[in-house]
Amino acid sequence: MKLSEELAWRGFVNQTTYKNISELDVAPISFYWGVDPSSNSMTVGHLAAAMMVRAFIAHGHKAVLLIGGATGLIGDPDGKNQERNLKSTKEIAKNIKGLLGQYDQIFAGESYEVVNNYDWFKTIGYLEFLRDIGKHFSMTQLLDRDFIKSRIGAGGSGISYAEFSYSLIQGYDFLHLYREKNVTLQVCGADQWGNSLSGVEMIRKLEGASAHVYSFPLIINKATGVKFGKSEAGAVWLDPAKTSVFQFYQFWLNCDDESVLNYLKIYTLMTPNEYDILIAEFQANPSQRAAQRYLAYEVTKIVHGEKYASSAQKVTSVLFDNATITSLSGDELELLSHEIPVAKPGFVSDVLVQSQVASSKNEARRLLESGAISMDGQKLRQDTMIAPKSLLKKGKNNFILVA
After folding, report:
1. Which of 222, 226, 270, 287 has its CA 20 to 30 A from that of 183?
2. CB 373 within 8 A of CB 348
3. Interatomic CA distance for residues 276 and 336, integer angstroms
4. DSSP 8-state symbol, 396
5. Residues 273 and 209 in one domain
């Protein structure tokens, strides 16, 4: 399968300056994708872009991954209705370290180069930049963009010169990478289309050469019609300190039946043949959720590694599929302990009160008598002593780890 065919099959076709994306099948090129260090972690929105980048790499194109150490100090105003709070150089450095670690994991085994745009902006003088670059940058297109109009129009919050200049700075990134590394393509999210065109114009005006932009579409949750990547707790992060491995796994496991068909193509490396086989199994027996289980495991493996994906899978089986808690290793019990209440060994009533599942011993005993409490899949009727490494369950989704 050619790259253009794979991009179409996976749903990575959106706006592009190419007349036909089959131009990507002709010869290897150098391209870049940029992420600003506004946080120390990417989200599952960024992950979609990273998976598209992997497709480009797999088809022989050379990837330059840009970290926006300079642009991160300004902040991208696109999509924002008010001025961003500036981040310190110390915070930016910390965020860059986090992003580089995620690059290492997601692109493990792949060939790529990392650059930081602060490395070239730190030596450029202000007057030099205005004369050599700013003189050739047209403000007309920028003023026509909807987010600029909304910020400077009636009732808008206004925009600083710094944020207004963001597009010029990003455009120069493309020009610099064209000059230094023969980069002729920028891949970006749909929301970066306008900023990315700034670089194409600079290369045309200053180098007399053609360059291109390829954007990927916004990922939409088909069940809700809203931007994908949010949970009830907020954004879904790749950093386990922000979204735990277990929560990350559950996020994918709980995808709706309609959307999972697209997410499998976007967020995993499965081939069309593997996809057809899995979907046939899934549609024959939707209640088994084979598609969601495959998606959850594979995406967690890409982001956190096979060990953690396997642990999240086993912990899920203990909680929801009647696997026994004795099947969990020490590390897996540790993973579980961060997700559910933990109580010390004792009588069932004491454990229920200690974990706040019951407000009193009397309520705990009523729960026992009604058959609402089970341990390792077996209903408990009496207030017996509970040993360590046991799992109590109230109803369908309330758990207590006795450790």
Report:
1. 270
2. yes
3. 34
4. T
5. no
Which amino acid, 194?
A: G
> Do 65 and 183 share a domain, yes or no?
yes
Q: Are 392 and 256 in the same domain?
A: no
Q: What is the pLDDT of residues 341-392, one digit of tens each?
A: 999 999 999 999 999 989 998 999 899 989 899 887 788 888 989 989 899 9
Given a contact cutoff of 8 angstroms between Cβ atoms, the answer to whether 295 and 267 are in contact is: yes
Containing structural domain, residue 292 = 230-323
Q: Give the whole-angstrom CA distance, residue 211 versus residue 214.
A: 10
Are 197 and 245 in a shared domain?
A: no
Q: Which two tokens stand for residue 5?
A: 């065919």
Q: Which residue pairs from 302-305 have beta carbons closer than 8 angstroms and sit at least 24 positions apart in sequence?
A: 302/47, 302/105, 302/106, 302/267, 302/268, 302/269, 303/47, 303/102, 303/105, 303/106, 303/238, 303/248, 304/105, 304/240, 304/245, 304/248, 305/105
Task: Quote the DSSP letter at residue 328.
Answer: -
What band does 81 get if pLDDT is binned at 50, 70 and 90?
low
What's CA 244's distance to the chain center, in Å?
13
Q: Do 16 and 124 sit in the same domain of this protein?
A: yes
**209 shares a domain with 135:** yes
